[in-house]
Specification:
Structural class: mainly alpha
Shape: globular
Order of helices and strands: HHH
Largest sheet: none
């Protein structure tokens, strides 16, 4: 049988580490901007504070926020 749980665990770990590295490389001004954008997305999409999001919602907000800095 294919080891799905370890694969999912490693995928989550790598994705989380990548997000932390991306965030750490932002300037202080960009970090504040990213925080505001993430809070706005969390509130608009899910009517929740960022700290109340599920893992799936958190990943969606993170992807949308990173999109602002890639363009």
């Amino acid at each position: 049988m294919f080891p799905l749980i370890p694969l999912l665990g490693w995928t989550g770990l790598i994705g989380g580490a990548g997000s932390l590295l991306w965030y750490a490389r932002l300037s202080g001004k960009d970090k504040a901007k990213a925080d505001r954008i993430a809070e706005d997305y969390a509130s608009d999409l899910f009517d929740k504070a960022r700290w109340q999001l599920t893992r799936s919602e958190e990943n969606h907000v993170r992807a949308l926020t990173k999109h602002h800095f890639e363009n």
